[in-house]
Structure to design on (125 residues):
């Protein structure tokens, strides 16, 4: 049995990037609409992502995926038979599982997404 748990540092790093994008995006929107207080977009974007991160942390960081008994079992409950996995990809700190039927699943906030991908691919063989 192999377990994949969410990593707190990866979670914080992802939300730091989201906050930077949110701050820039909010400022750009205010600039486009002609608001003279463009700078207010920065604290608004930061606050939005900080609140989101705080609110979802307990749920996202408690997610556990396991490879056992010929299946990838995740939260929800999600069960994906290993024989049904078409592709395994990395996206930032996430690992994306694509099934033969086209379903997509994310194993989020991995400390080493390449190692997670390798472990899943090893289980496929």
């Amino acid at each position: 049995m192999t377990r994949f748990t969410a990593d707190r540092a990866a979670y914080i790093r992802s939300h730091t990037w989201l906050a930077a994008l949110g701050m820039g995006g909010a400022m750009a929107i205010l600039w486009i609409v002609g608001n003279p207080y463009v700078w207010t977009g920065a604290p608004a974007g930061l606050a939005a992502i900080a609140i989101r991160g705080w609110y979802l942390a307990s749920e996202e960081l408690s997610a556990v995926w396991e490879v056992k008994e010929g299946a990838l079992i995740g939260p929800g409950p999600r069960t994906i038979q290993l024989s049904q996995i078409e592709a395994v990809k990395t996206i930032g700190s996430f690992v994306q599982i694509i099934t033969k039927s086209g379903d997509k699943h994310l194993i989020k906030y991995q400390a080493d997404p390449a190692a997670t991908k390798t472990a899943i691919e090893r289980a496929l063989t």
The first strand starts at residue 2 and ends at 5. The two ends are 15 Å apart (CA to CA). The beta strands are 2-5, 64-68, 71-74, 78-81, 85-91, 94-99, 104-107. Residues 64-124 form a domain with the PH-domain like fold (CATH 2.30.29.30).
